[in-house]
Amino acid sequence: MSEARQIEAAIYERLSKVIDPELGRSVTDLGMIVAINADAIETKDASQSYDVTVHVELTVEGCPLSQTITNQINGAVSSYPDATLIPHIEVSSMSKDKLTNLVEGLKAERKHNPFTKPGSKTRIFAIASGKGGVGKSSVTANLAATFAALGYKTAAIDADIYGFSLPKLFGVHTQPTNLNGMLMPVTAWGVKLISIGMFAGADRAILWRGPRLQRSLEQFLSDVWWDNPDVLLLDLAPGTGDMAISVAQTLPNAEMVIITTPQPSASDVAVRSGLVALQVPTTVRGVVENMSYFDHRGERLEIFGHGGGQRVSEQLTHALGTEIPLLVQLPLQPEIREVGEAGRPAVLDADGALSDSPLAASFANLARQLMKQPQPMQSAQ
């Protein structure tokens, strides 16, 4: 084998480590590397130099992550140690037939809802509340960002169809890429996201009833390429309506986290969300008390009262016959709203790492508590 052919083979091997950030597979496995051509360059000294042209076919024209992929390919070629290689990347898009075959192969691997298949390791946490206004979506966003910052492959579904807010909290203004009928979730702050709020017309009032709500959840689960995340969070609509029941039925391995605030008007209603577990198969993992207190010049002010999270914990423990702990008490902090509405979860710094704030420490502790518990056994599907 000539040296040029050896270089081509070596570069192909290196490219097998380049991962498509949306599909989570190597560009070679996905058939994106069409050809590699290495041509020797005449030099005046004894050094070995080659022009290396890599022909790449992206899944769709105008792929939003094309620059990321080409940068990784350039890096893989340039890092070759045994000769000086000058990379050239020629980019095109797959033919319709090739893309169809690729998508059908990926869909065949999943066979509908991938989170209930035997052996799934994804931890699914459904974030629920009895009423609106308790900061459920803010908790979901910050918890998801915390999981991602701790190194977990994290995904989140905005299952609050009527009151979606995750796109705004993550600063998302783009739509998911439609890959021949399979959607690529939008990634922001390390979290893969999907929400009805990402689609055209989502600013209008949504008037959906039970069957269509359940179908929307099924589509979010089966028609989106999630690539086996470690953690999936669902931001549920408040109360015990159709979507909460659909989640319990569609994802029997989901673990429910109940959000409340300290005052009785919130905690009494929050108990009802946990009592769903008496009627449909789901595990209640614990209670989060949000807006527990406000630190003002060294004084801790309990603006919304005291003890709501503990009351929910005790009542659910008694009703369900198993320990439902109060997992954490989160403070009332204006930064959560201010930073969140600007499109960055408040637990993160501007570089996307966990900040050194007490709030970030509280969410990190919550994330570790949730992952420490054993994963529920899946029911037969």
TrEMBL record:
Positions with a binding annotation for ATP: G130, K131, G132, G133, V134, G135, K136, S137
GO function term, MF aspect, one: ATP-dependent FeS chaperone activity
GO biological process: iron-sulfur cluster assembly
Domain MIP18 family-like: 8-82
Residue spans crossing the bilayer: none
Annotated keywords: ATP-binding, Hydrolase, Iron, Iron-sulfur, Metal-binding, Nucleotide-binding
HAMAP family: Mrp_NBP35 (MF_02040)
Family per record: Belongs to the Mrp/NBP35 ATP-binding proteins family.
Its job: Binds and transfers iron-sulfur (Fe-S) clusters to target apoproteins. Can hydrolyze ATP.
Subunit structure: Homodimer.
Protein name per its UniProtKB record: Iron-sulfur cluster carrier protein
Organism in which the protein naturally occurs: Bifidobacterium tsurumiense
